[in-house]
């Protein structure tokens, strides 16, 4: 049996190109209008992974010439205190994007906080208004990870119209918005999840297979239709046996090689696109706010 | 080949049962608390079909003991005038549900009007906030037609968990919210539409096939998996040749008999559930508003 020469989708390269475009636009806006987009990132508590994410976001925000506002609050911050901060940021004309790093401490209702963010500044796209707009196919600020996946797919495949996309996972952060974006891009979309009977059979029919379950090694080589495009959103650190660790996706990468037409590696696939899309969303949100319009637009 | 004894899903009967429950609850609320839910229906222009719908809605609203407020505006009503009426209804404590009959005249931005309705009173569930809540799997006021379909399915099949549902059509009124509700009910969900390649092949894999395209006769008998449950949302009036007309669905009903396990007839299937769900949504919206909560709940 002949195998396919699987093409790796270089997320770093796509992300660098998007970031460079954002950076150039920010410089032009600053030069021509004297205006600079600002992104506020709010971290509650001292979760180590969250601290790394927030540090990366604030560093990259500054590196494209935007203003970065980091707000680090103690783990015992009350819901009311956090809501008061969100209200201040909503009212702050220097802040065009607001990102509240998840997860929040269990004493705080995440939904309440996400919905309190002004939809025009909701650059993570997780509040109910932007989610509704995406579902209705209206202009919206779109969650960064699924937006990054969509941009990779469109860059690699061009029009997605008529392709059958199977999304494994239905989280509010990735799976659900991913399914909506693919439907808006005129794919036929199947959403599979923990209750799905024979996920492998569904996966095998996919022209585009997006996997976002956080279960390392879930998707085997024989789950993939020969030539399909595979987007592996999972990223889990596992021990390698010698006291070291490595990052792996939800797809058994070695088995996918020779079967998939294209695949995102882990790391270096979807991951880098997420922050690039956050910067792009912030730029667009700022443009909309300066134009006096109250809705965002996807990258 | 043996054929299946296809069971007809009696929408009239299910709708009558739901309407009776709403009526009993309204009477109890009136008796015990002296409070009566109120539904405002707004019609712009003189579209004949819309006039029939609005008359049916107001009549049934009254018949379950709720207050009905009909607002009929001329076809040349401006967007600003309609928005002003919506604002008055939002502020009116006697009005717990607001329904703006679609389609609106082309001079009026429907999205703007639907989003202007207080989400707590948006009993049609078409505004961005309720759409977002449904997509996120949060409590919401759910569009009446897909809600009616879901209630029929749950009444007929019990738990839908793990079943493969194929929804043909992706309108904001039916297809998209239907896919979301089935996903929330733990179905594996495929959404097919005008750009889908080989819709028949997708349909043939469905345990639950929901068709909402408005294309009479689209779904043939050989599109249906033997034993599947078919929900036919389409309703189109066609000439019969002798100067008369009849109502037909999107499914060739005669061909589905003997193949489908269960099917909704047209008329008498999904149709009657829509108004029953509107009444149920209005009752729930009223309860939530009296309780001082600002979110609705599905029937």
UniProtKB/TrEMBL annotation, chains A, B:
The keyword Transferase does not apply. One of its GO terms (cellular component) is cytosol. Residues 143-289 form the Tetrahydrofolate dehydrogenase/cyclohydrolase NAD(P)-binding domain. Pathway: One-carbon metabolism; tetrahydrofolate interconversion. One of its GO terms (molecular function) is methylenetetrahydrofolate dehydrogenase (NADP+) activity. PROSITE patterns: THF_DHG_CYH_1 (PS00766), THF_DHG_CYH_2 (PS00767). It catalyses: (6R)-5,10-methylene-5,6,7,8-tetrahydrofolate + NADP(+) = (6R)-5,10-methenyltetrahydrofolate + NADPH; (6R)-5,10-methenyltetrahydrofolate + H2O = (6R)-10-formyltetrahydrofolate + H(+). It comes from the Bacteria. InterPro entries: Aminoacid_DH-like_N_sf, NAD(P)-bd_dom_sf, THF_DH/CycHdrlase, THF_DH/CycHdrlase_cat_dom, THF_DH/CycHdrlase_CS, THF_DH/CycHdrlase_NAD-bd_dom. Its EC number is 1.5.1.5, 3.5.4.9. SUPFAM superfamilies: Aminoacid dehydrogenase-like, N-terminal domain, NAD(P)-binding Rossmann-fold domains. CDD domains: NAD_bind_m-THF_DH_Cyclohyd (cd01080). Residues 9-124 form the Tetrahydrofolate dehydrogenase/cyclohydrolase catalytic domain. Keywords: Amino-acid biosynthesis, Histidine biosynthesis, Hydrolase, Methionine biosynthesis, Multifunctional enzyme, NADP, One-carbon metabolism, Oxidoreductase, Purine biosynthesis. NADP(+) binds at residues 169-171, 194, 235. GO terms for biological process: L-histidine biosynthetic process; methionine biosynthetic process; purine nucleotide biosynthetic process; tetrahydrofolate interconversion. Homodimer. HAMAP family: THF_DHG_CYH. Catalyzes the oxidation of 5,10-methylenetetrahydrofolate to 5,10-methenyltetrahydrofolate and then the hydrolysis of 5,10-methenyltetrahydrofolate to 10-formyltetrahydrofolate. Belongs to the tetrahydrofolate dehydrogenase/cyclohydrolase family. This is Bifunctional protein FolD. The gene is folD.
């Amino acid at each position: 049996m002949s195998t396919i020469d699987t093409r790796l989708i270089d997320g770093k390269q796509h992300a660098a190109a998007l970031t460079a475009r954002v950076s150039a636009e920010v410089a032009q806006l600053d030069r021509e209008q004297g205006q600079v987009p600002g992104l506020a990132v709010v971290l509650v508590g001292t979760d180590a992974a969250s601290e790394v994410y927030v540090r990366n976001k604030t560093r990259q925000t500054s590196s494209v010439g935007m203003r970065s506002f980091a707000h680090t609050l103690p783990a015992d911050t009350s819901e009311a205190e956090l809501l008061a901060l969100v209200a201040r940021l909503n009212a702050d004309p220097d802040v065009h994007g607001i990102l509240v790093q998840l997860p929040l401490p269990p004493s705080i209702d995440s939904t309440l906080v996400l919905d309190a963010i002004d939809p025009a500044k909701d650059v993570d796209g997780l509040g109910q208004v932007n989610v509704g707009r995406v579902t209705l196919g209206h202009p919206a600020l779109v969650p960064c990870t699924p937006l990054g996946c969509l941009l990779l797919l469109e860059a690699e495949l061009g029009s997605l119209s008529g392709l059958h996309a199977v999304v494994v996972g239905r989280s509010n952060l990735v799976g659900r918005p991913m399914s909506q974006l693919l439907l808006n891009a005129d794919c036929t979309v199947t959403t599979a999840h923990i209750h799905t009977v024979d996920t492998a059979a569904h996966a095998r029919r996919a022209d585009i297979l997006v996997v976002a379950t956080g279960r390392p090694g879930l998707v085997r080589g024989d789950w993939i239709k020969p030539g399909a495009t595979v987007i592996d959103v999972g990223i889990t650190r596992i021990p390698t046996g010698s006291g070291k660790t490595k990052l792996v996706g939800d797809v058994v990468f070695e088995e996918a090689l020779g079967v998939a037409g294209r695949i995102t590696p882990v790391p270096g696939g979807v991951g880098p696109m997420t922050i690039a899309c956050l910067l792009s969303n912030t730029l667009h949100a700022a443009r909309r706010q300066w134009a006096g319009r109250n809705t965002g637009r996807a990258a």
